[in-house]
Amino acid sequence: MSDANQLRIIEAVSQALDEELARDDDVIVYGEDVGIDGGVFRATQGLIEDHPEQVHDSPLAEAGIIGLGIGLAATGFRPVPEIQFQSFLYQGFHQLQQHASRLRSRTRGTLSCPMTIRMPFGGGIRALEHHSDSYEAGFAHIPGLKVVVPSTPADTKGLLTAAIRDPDPVVFMEPTRLYRASSEPVPEGEYVEPLGAAAVRRTGEDLTLISWGGMVRDTLDAVEETEVSADVIDLRTISPMDIDTVVASVRKTGRCIVVHEAPRTAGMAAELVAQVTDEAFLYLEAPVERVTGYDVPVPMFAREEAYLPDTSRIVTAIERTVGF
Amino acid sequence: MPRSTTAEFTIDSIRILDKDGSADEDLVPDLTDETLIDLYRQMRRSRRLDERAIALQRRGELGTYAPAIGQEAAQVGSAAALDAGDWIVPAFREQIVYLMRGSPMHKILWYAMGMEEGAEIPEGSNLMPPSIPVGSQALHATGIGWGKALRGENAATITYFGDGATSTGDVYEALNFAGAYDAQTVFLCQNNQYAISTPRRVQTRAETLAQKAVAAGIEGIQVDGNDVLAVYVATTEALEKARNGNPVLIEAETYRRSMHTTSDDPSVYRSAEEEADWEQRDPISRFETYLRSEGVLDDNRIEEINAAIEAELADAIDRAKEGQSEIDPVDMFRHTFAEMPPVLQRQLAEYKVMRDE
Predict the structure, then answer these.
(1) At B133, which CATH number?
(2) Tens digits of per-residue pLDDT, A61-119?
(3) Which of A6, B226, B289, B314 is at a distance of 20 to 30 A from A50, taking alpha carbons?
(4) Between chains, do A91 and B133 touch, taking CB under 8 Å as contact?
(5) Nearest CA in chain A to B326
(6) In terms of domains, do B143 and B245 share one?
């Protein structure tokens, strides 16, 4: 691995797309402003010059973008549309929920939808109203859909490559606040990180913290600050989730905290708590805590710091759980 | 006759002021000098607010801001045609429309400071908050316009959206519902030639955006969106029709002279020549030339207008900053429901404990 491939998440997205476009003529990248503009975050910068037949600016219509992908996929393409912000995917939700996710099951497997829908999501970048949602739990509630959230540049490349090659539809959620946060060496050339496998970012004995996307950094910082001996699990794939890694860790530590920025009620933390209770109830020494956003519409940026979980909230939860 | 033509359509276009500011006198609406000056004043007010807001954003004092530079005639001309009882359903670039309806300027700045207070609507002002999801608001305008028809009220509704929005299902549905339900609604499409980087010709193969009305069975008309008098006339006529249950789509052809938002860099996707060409067609200088030639406006009056706008801006910026320093995060819990449910009360209590630690 050379320093030459030191990338931030935004560049890792670009590189994965570039390599998959080159590898497979059936990969089609399209969406609002993905062409000459290179995407509003520049994730697709330069791709239209290098792959003019495979990269397309689209009319402004999210339902159309996702619906078109279903048709492309049915005829053998691998569509990789970009939805400009996750909050605008709601405009195409029916196509995702009613068709993309169940084309395989409705046709008893004769047709499928190997589409990867990329989109920036989450708060923390002082964006406009309607730009900061974290709807992973909603997507995870759709059977037949995979939901992936990377938190590092290397994972971004490996997981996006895996998503594009996956035979089923994948919602690929890119945390905006991490796009340019830091860089790391990313493997050059072919690099696939399998979907459905969590990553253990730190290992310890007394506590398990589970997080993903924009919250992983704060979770690691909180562990650092409290000096607790903890496993920190980056879930990476929200659905189907790697429950074995979670359960093994909780059985070892006996304590668990889930951190996410989405609202608490019916958030992914609730599902994790349920599964931990199913599989590790007799090992638990404290209630499983949730550190999450509140059950309010994600506020505009003047109040987003108060809304988003941060290190101090996680530290408080750690102290409470460990001291239980 | 197995094959025949069963429908044909044409699209009219209105222009009153030429690019050099000379007018077609037969078409000039009968407006008082004070009304004419007010149209000019509102356009200047919009322009200066945008210029100051961009500067404030560049200094980090505002978040992302969507300026309307170049589109002032389309916005001011249409808003000036409304009665106070008519509803307004804006997109996210119609700052001046809020101001013309009496919303104070510091609220525009609050919205750009990421404060929900900026989207708060003055009681009884018949305004909807800004709508960022493109095109989604058009249906609300049809709903309001239908509601007015159901109640037998005379008020009309106007909604604003751009060329990009005409590709969305929501806008097609809004036009179709409006026709089907005789909604008292005017759809004002500001075709500013770009949806962020995507030019109008990539957006659709349709020759005009106005003709999108045809499929819904409603009237569509084009207007020179940089001609404030033409926009005023077209909107006045459309509102009259709408009050009688005949919705209208107006395509105001204009140009977004600045960026999509302060996050955007137009030099990536369009040429300096094109921008210079549209600068020649600027709506404010065109109208100013006309008003001067008519003897309605002179240097003194312009100076007065500008001074008043600068004073309003300075005051708005002060008030916005003052409000910003007083924001209470607890407010985010307050307006989710009419009555706060127990689960949220507990979260609010948790929040307060955390804040006070």
Answers:
(1) 3.40.50.970
(2) 999 999 999 999 999 999 999 999 999 999 999 999 999 999 999 999 999 999 999 99
(3) A6
(4) yes
(5) A302
(6) yes
The residue of chain B nearest to residue A301, with distances taken between CA atoms, is B114
ipTM (interface pTM): 0.93
Residue B2 has what pLDDT?
87
3-state class (DSSP) for residue B236? helix
Domain segments of chain A as ranges:
3-185, 199-322
- Per-residue b/e over B75-100, b at no fewer than 16 CB within 10 Å? bbbbbbbbeeebbbbbbbbbbbbbbb
Measure the CA–CA gap between A137 and A290, rounded to whole angstroms. 14
Q: How far is A56 from chain B (nearest CA, A)?
A: 10
Helix and strand element counts for chain A (H, E): 12, 14
CB pair distance less than 8 Å for B331 and A64 = no
Assigned domain for B162 exists: yes
Q: State the total domains in chain B.
A: 2
Domain A199-322 classified CATH 3.40.50.920? Answer: yes
**Residue-wise pLDDT tens digits, B305-332:** 999 999 999 999 999 999 999 999 999 9
A6 interface with B at CB cutoff 8 Å: no
Question: Could you tell me if B205 and B246 lie in one domain?
Answer: yes
B132 contacts A59? CB cut-off 8 A: no
DSSP run (H or E) holding B159? strand B157-162
